[in-house]
Amino acid sequence: MTIDSHQHFWNYQPHRDTWITEEMNAIRKDFLPSHLSQLLKENKIEGSIAVQADQSEKETDFLIKCARNHSFIKGIVGWTDLQSPGVQARLEYYYQFPEVKGFRHVVQSEPGDFLLRESFCSGIALLEQYAFTYDILVYPHQLPAALAFVKKFPNQLFVIDHLAKPSVRQMQLKPWKQQLQQIAMHENVFCKISGLVTEADWKTWKPSNFNPYLDTALEAFGTKRLMYGSDWPVCLLAASYEGQLQIIRQFIDSLSPSEKKAIMGENAARFYHL
Question: Is the dihedral of CA 26, 211, 271, 132 positive or negative?
């Protein structure tokens, strides 16, 4: 099965979705399963993982409903307050929904030490007993904290979203490259090759701009811990669905058929227990 491991849905609400700024006019509207299903069919993608975009349990419940009504959504990455003293009860609650595969927090908007806070780590420590995964969304300057974070939980499945958003626009590799390599040494950490087009210049990027970052990810994580994700509809700021997909398909073209299958779906299925 070919899986898009990272996409979003929303009913656009300006007062809530403040992260969608005026320069992001292309995505200041609703994006729902009915909008994505045809794109997946056209591009021979058989399923997707819907990832939270808003930090509320309403978001998680919304994504559960989307998955229940649309069979192409194979799992969701929701949100619950992992810092709450009552987090175990919330994990117990969401465990009853097979659609819920894991959780995410928008750490890129938090202070640098957020991942290492005792209250947050207490919540993360509970995920393993429910077989929940955790998506790590950080910027490059937060990678040292992310490394210390994953070291604390050697049995917890983690995935780095969007290669930790390297500075493609500035064509910077250091120190991001070394830090990603260090995190990749931990076998419980996977990485999504997703979200790169929006880290480049939205109007003037070329496919070759992404090769140094994709090369780094492939060298660090190998073909068994990388997974393709579109980051639709955010990707539409810089590329069509087909455009961002073509970058990845061209990049993996020289790999073996089994390696391609792993990156384009099998690794996501294994990671998210599909």
Answer: negative
Please choose, from the candidates 163, 133, 160, the residue with its C-alpha nearest in 3D space to the C-alpha of residue 269: 133
Q: At what angle do helices 176-184 and 211-221 cross, to 10 degrees?
A: 20
Dihedral, 216, 221, 222, 224 alpha carbons, nearest 10: -150
CA proximity to 269, closest of 32, 70, 7, 46? 46
Q: Which amino acid does the sequence have at 56? A: S
Q: Where do the structural domains in the chain lie, given as residue ranges?
A: 3-271
Nearest to residue 249, comparing CAs of 200, 193, 171, 205?
193
pTM of the predicted protein model: 0.97
**252: which DSSP letter?**
T
- How many angstroms separate the Cα of 243 from the Cα of each of 197, 202, 226, 265? 9, 12, 19, 19
Of the CA atoms within 13 Å of residue 246, those in its CB half-sphere come to 9
For residue 235, what are its two tokens? 């990707």
The dihedrals phi and psi of 179, each to the nearest 5 degrees, come to -70, -40
Does the domain formed by 3-271 have CATH 3.30.420.10?
A: no
The beta-strand segments (E) located in the chain are 3-7, 47-51, 73-78, 100-105, 133-136, 158-160, 189-193, 226-228
Single-letter residue type at 49: I
Q: 224-240: per-residue pLDDT in tens?
A: 999 999 999 999 999 99
Cis peptide before 175 (omega within 30 of 0): yes
**What are the tens digits of pLDDT across the range 60-90?**
999 999 999 999 999 999 999 999 999 999 9
Classify burial at 192, counting beta carbons within 10 Å of its beta carbon; exposed 0-12, middle 13-18, buried 19 or more.
Answer: buried
Place of tokens 């073909």: 223
